[in-house]
């Protein structure tokens, strides 16, 4: 079984994936942040490193998906391959950071991969507004994320809205996490667990 958590930078995907994995006995597949050779450079100079970073994430996410599909385990994945293409790469292209040629090459590789990719059984979208994202990014205090432009987060959120409203890859559970603290408040975590439980049982959520 493949569960995925989707949402903007700082939405709280990693923490929720851990909590749900502990509760349901799932395995977590994390995003390639530690040891990512392009991420810090990308935040310093986006046009220079956008294509490199996108290829890197695409490759690592595809490897994960293939591993999940081969496995019989119940796995929760921290961010989907769809977000790389339909949120991050698309946004970099639309905002003029990634050139037409680079985007066409990237999209060609992504489309080839898609023939082997199956959608998650359930996708959980953590919907958060800018103040929440900004405060969580600040709280975790990663050096390379300290100068993320607000416009970048705002554009990504607009792409997330467009993407999740038109999501047709399977079941999606939308959780508004603006007023939630499932990390420190057990009641909030229980609410989420119940919703996920229900979503896993019922066809439509
Ligand atoms: N395809 C991508 N293009 C550009 N940046 C990406 C892409 N995928 C991930 N990232 C960046 O890599 C880092 C991932 O960090 P992390 O795994 O902690 O997730 P996050 O998005 O901050 O989520 P959360 O706080 O919800 O766990 C973030 O800075 C994120 O924006």
In brief, what are we looking at here?
By secondary structure, the chain is α/β, with parallel strands linked by helices.
Q: What do you see in this structure?
A:
It comes from Arcicella rigui. The protein is an alpha/beta fold and 205 residues long. The chain has a single domain, classed as P-loop containing nucleotide triphosphate hydrolases (Rossmann fold), CATH 3.40.50. Helix content is 56%, strand content 12%. It is built from eight helices and five strands; from the N terminus they run E-H-E-H-H-E-H-H-E-H-H-E-H. It has helices at residues 13-24, 39-44, 46-70, 81-94, 100-114, 130-140, 150-165, 186-201; strands spanning 2-6, 27-29, 75-78, 122-127, 171-176. Helix 3 (46-70) runs antiparallel to helix 4 and helix 3 (46-70) runs parallel beside helix 5 (100-114). Bound molecules: adenosine-5'-triphosphate. Adenosine-5'-triphosphate is lined by residues 7, 9-14, 31, 33, 39, 53-54, 57, 78, 84, 88, 145.
Key features of this structure:
alpha/beta; Rossmann fold; five-stranded parallel sheet; 8 helices; 5 strands; globular; binds adenosine-5'-triphosphate; DCK/DGK; Deoxynucleoside kinase
């Amino acid at each position: 079984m493949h569960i995925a958590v989707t949402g903007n930078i700082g939405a709280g995907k990693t923490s929720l994936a851990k909590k749900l994995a502990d509760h349901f006995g799932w395995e977590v597949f994390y995003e390639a942040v530690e040891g990512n050779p392009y991420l810090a450079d990308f935040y310093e100079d986006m046009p220079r490193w956008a294509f490199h970073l996108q290829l890197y994430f695409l490759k690592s996410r595809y490897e994960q998906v293939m591993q999940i599909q081969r496995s019989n385990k119940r796995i929760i994945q921290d961010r989907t391959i769809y977000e790389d293409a339909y949120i991050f790469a698309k946004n970099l292209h639309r905002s003029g950071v990634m050139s037409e040629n680079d985007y066409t090459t990237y999209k060609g590789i992504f489309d080839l991969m898609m023939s082997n990719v199956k959608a998650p059984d359930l996708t959980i979208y953590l919907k958060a507004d800018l103040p929440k994202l900004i405060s969580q990014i600040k709280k975790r205090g990663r050096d390379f994320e300290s100068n993320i432009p607000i416009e970048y987060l705002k554009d990504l959120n607009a792409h997330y809205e467009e993407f999740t409203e038109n999501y047709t890859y399977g079941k999606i559970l939308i959780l508004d996490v603006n007023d939630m603290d499932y990390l420190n408040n057990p009641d909030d975590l229980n609410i989420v667990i119940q919703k996920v439980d229900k979503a896993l049982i019922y066809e439509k959520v």
